[in-house]
Amino acid sequence: MDSNDEIIYDSEGYIRIYKSGRAERFHGLEFVPPSSDPVTGVSSKDANVVPGVTARLYMPKLDSAKKIPILVHFHGGAFCMGSSFDPLAHNYITSLVARANVVAVSVNYRLAPENYLPAAYEDSYAALDWVLSHKNDGPEPWLTDHGDFTQVYTSGESSGANIAHHVAMYGGSKLCGAVLIHPYFLSSEKVESDEFNPALADKLVQLWKIVCPTTIGLDDPWINPLAADAPPLAILGCKRVLILVGGADTLRDRGRAYCEKLKESEWKGEVKYWEAPGKGHGFYVFEPKSELSEEQDKIIADFVNKI
């Protein structure tokens, strides 16, 4: 057997990664076209951001000419799975846009291992720049005509929340806030929630080293924003941050630690934290109509609308 065909990571039913950098994906492959949703009234369309990077834009049913917040969103999938166009991602953002009454831009960044990190971060920075370039004029009327550029938020789920943090650091004061949903952060220090699912905790460590082969380890600032060498949270330019975690999520204590560190820093903004009791990672995607999923959506909606 060719050594390049050696399997170096296998998550049954999700992804298999080979030493050569080839990947076989078994999840999140279905493409849902943009549409006008008959239930919520939310419309969507696709756009080219920069070469190699696309996005899906969402517009709620509007009742007035008042400009509304802009949400620049990054899907989850451990940097190597998913897209802005798969059914779970599309349905989630459609529902959130309807509840929050925002213009959303769901960024379809490049995935590892075909494009190792920091490619996803670079794509995401470019996507934010593209959105902000519409402040005075631009090709997308949903942004120019309806977006409030004093209310731009970055948001993401899991690895997308990790990206959202870095985009918030990059965007500085051009952003109003950040929404981090079940963030995928790690560190060399063990935490209590690692024991919820030790096998999964180990896989997350293993996977990080695959998607970012140039990493210096678990205290790399890309995966550990609390590391000694990471840019201090005090320099966050936005003024509001919302962190949401699952009470039974292996990554729960990573999100908690981020929240506490932000509060302890010299950052002068507003930080909010919400925990879904007894819920695991990404529960809201798989049970969107549950009471806690709807509560989480409401908390996000209230946050971006400053309620």
TrEMBL record:
Domain of life: Eukaryota
Gene Ontology molecular function: hydrolase activity
Name this polypeptide is given: Alpha/beta-Hydrolases superfamily protein
Taxonomic lineage of the native organism: Eukaryota, Viridiplantae, Streptophyta, Embryophyta, Tracheophyta
SUPFAM superfamilies: alpha/beta-Hydrolases
Domain Alpha/beta hydrolase fold-3: 71-284
Native species: Rhynchospora pubera
Classification via PANTHER family: ARYLACETAMIDE DEACETYLASE, OS08G0475400 PROTEIN
